[in-house]
């Protein structure tokens, strides 16, 4: 958010200031090592950090709340205008409770888990108003409930208020959460990743709502997030957190465009960029000017116009799949050339994962044709030949789920070898070691188990499993969405280099359009089981033809 | 930019947590449980070996007149030595309970894993049959079988095993379902790993926690069930020495000859409390392990 | 919502039918001749043949099953082999007596279990919680007769001889006219069932208290009392109702041991006698009865589940 009218950030007094806050676990390990920041009326401070940086703990401390097993050890939280000007953390629990929902309120990360599923949404909002004694009568409070629902852009008729959370969409649930937090007109709102899990269009709406509320009603906001592009869109000031410490703090423009601290720079460098100006990882972005795929002779080929050269490795024709009345895939056709990388873009529910699983043979309920080198593949991996199975490989979304926790990395990675050929134990181990080298994991990982690996390392091991048999086509299903942004950059980097080295084709399935120029030469946009846009990445991004693609492009936050 | 998560930079996140067994015996409660159960198990195993030289009688031999304070702890309703009957009376109970539990586990795990893994109609049929068996309480089911087939040992073991099976199958099924929705199972499917191998290599090792808990729980119940049937006079038959039967035989004379009732009651109580303490500790140890670790 | 309930109802009827088949098939496995069993070894061939005719023993099994099932539905449970009288007459009073026992035990143990479990969850990690979990762990391990004998030793024979250890109502008089005799059997059942309900209530409450919506309610400034009553408890009811149902059904089995121990003239005692005498008709009738109780109680638990879950109540439409 930007409010060019009021540029008096420095002159207004802070409404909430956190000073030297230290929090430790019950066993004595310190989580926050002296965090300080200030919130000013009408301004939003973004608290940015990767998972485990302590940003949520710091946010909850502003409300005087510490999760089970955490204790406050030092520092203060001063809340102005709350009657007693003093340290919020010194107040007894009963008085802190009175401030919550009134002077300072909280918007949770996942509204689906945080709204009471057995209570009507109107009653949930009314409850805060009753506790805080808002207005003078129940009629007042009902009026306010209706008013605040309108303020966050929801319907407010009695029938709507009588709905249960499960009868709303994710975006609507989140706005109910915001309405609940805003009902008593708080001085401070703490927003904990409120747009995670929403699609970009809904995210844009929610961000707009938040910015308007802050601006119009002079609410001070603390916006906790890991997404720097969102920060650019919504925040006036930024504080960057790294393992329990604020390492850089300042106005948004300064922190995002003239970062001082190394970590901030690294973080920023890892953010994918729709325009492809920045490079994430070692490999530069794919733009119209350069191609990725070397031709067989080894020199980089110029961008090949479709159909002129290069045979089609994968052809998908009229793929359909329905579960009952739910048409998941409604006639998908496209092709992928040898050595080409293609992005399959779609939001949750668009059918992109189903499509990629049909191709990989993990789903055999479809009708239509999937051909590899003009040879039709049977539905389902078990029906395919060993060679076909070897040539198409699939990498799963979550590396926390795709490796058996009870088996060593070597045991997991050698499975494809065991199933495709008669290879001795030694030979298999050698091949596994090579694959691990390819994904930049050393020999020392062979006998470790997944729980000893970080998320990024696990994903590398999962990629090694797909590579161990030298596939022709690699299907990557949202492989970076469970990972932090810096890890995402390194994985994208790795996939690009691997594709470069081996000349395999790649189908990169994702919901994140910002990655397009970093990974793909061509892209297909999927909406409700149909491809609505198909073309080279530049064509699609620069001259989108379908309204859905244009809407996506308009709403994607950028740095 | 350099790669942030490159292996050299990332520190080890967590120390490797110790295995289920190590986490189990770290708990004081588990140590107490193991101590209690082991004491009774030893008594039951060694008791028969001590007869007759330790007490002078075998467990079925008549030592004198009924309910007299002869010998160390007196005589029972037929004049047999109470201590001898007590020493000889635990082994069979323990054996039957263990066999019934193992039978139930084998059946239940097999059926539960099949139901979860096959899914669809097979799952439906298995789980509905389960519901039918569950509608009869364990004891009533056992009594029905005993009415028809008589109170032989194999009937007791089989019927108690069978009544455990649907309950174990239910637990196994839900544990298996949790595991098979994980992507590493899909990965194995993708590589066309034979189904039995997936079950043995990928599923079974990841559900040992809940299965061990179930084993402990069913053992506790088996002991209770075998003892209860004997206590009703419908399990072990006279003149066998058996703790459950002893209680049945001697309970009319609780005041004159309390040992005949109290010794076996105490032994059964200590044993079941011991196994239950172990089971509860196992459950805690298993809950901490988070095997199917998704984020 | 009604369609869900109707479907559950249909499933329950099917399960009950399947149980009846199971129970009936069991009797086919019985070695020997039921008519012989009733009339004894000295019966003349003519009388045997007549009784066989009367009991339809010459008909094929499925016909006998159907007529047996028809009998069950019309209240005709067949003829007891041991007493020679109709099973229904034999069991009428005993069912009433057992119901008294079960009802009294439920009325005490369900609220007690819920309260103790909630208390334990709210005092999580404190001494009160440790005492509750420890005690319930021990009690849950013990077979019914162990608890019963311990109570008899404590309150009837050795320590405080204040309560009767056996039920001895004169024939024809109802058991509930002697309330003192009911104390020990009821207490045994209560001690047997309460720990399970308490443990489940505790576990469910802990889970609910750890949920996002309870944390959110606290962050909204909702007073702790209201957090528990309004945001936590309603969500704990459905899983606990399932456990209560299972416990009540289990009590129907456990009551056999308890009645035998206290010589209480209920169905449990009748069942033990019938098994000892191999009185198949009685065992069959009681098995079906117990299964029916189990199914009805489970249906009630499902109803609680549906009523406390708006997703099921409103049909889950988005």
TrEMBL record, chain B:
Its main location: membrane. Residues 90-274 form the ABC transmembrane type-1 domain. InterPro entries: BP-dependent_transpt_permease (IPR050366), MetI-like (IPR000515), MetI-like_sf (IPR035906). PROSITE patterns: ABC_TM1. It holds the Pfam family BPD_transp_1. Keywords: Cell membrane, Membrane, Transmembrane, Transmembrane helix, Transport. The chain crosses the membrane at residues 32-51, 93-111, 132-150, 254-274. The keyword DNA repair does not apply. It comes from the Bacteria. It is a multi-pass membrane protein. One of its GO terms (biological process) is transmembrane transport. Belongs to the binding-protein-dependent transport system permease family. This is ABC transporter permease. It comes from Arthrobacter mobilis.
TrEMBL record, chain C:
Residues 95-301 form the ABC transmembrane type-1 domain. Pfam families: BPD_transp_1, BPD_transp_1_N. It is a multi-pass membrane protein. The keyword ATP-binding does not apply. The chain crosses the membrane at residues 12-30, 95-116, 137-163, 175-198, 240-262, 282-308. GO terms for cellular component: plasma membrane. Coiled coil: none annotated. It comes from the Bacteria. Keywords: Cell membrane, Membrane, Transmembrane, Transmembrane helix, Transport. It is found in: Cell membrane. One of its GO terms (biological process) is transmembrane transport. PANTHER family: DIPEPTIDE TRANSPORT SYSTEM PERMEASE PROTEIN DPPB-RELATED, PEPTIDE ABC TRANSPORTER PERMEASE PROTEIN. Belongs to the binding-protein-dependent transport system permease family. This is ABC transporter permease. It comes from Arthrobacter mobilis.
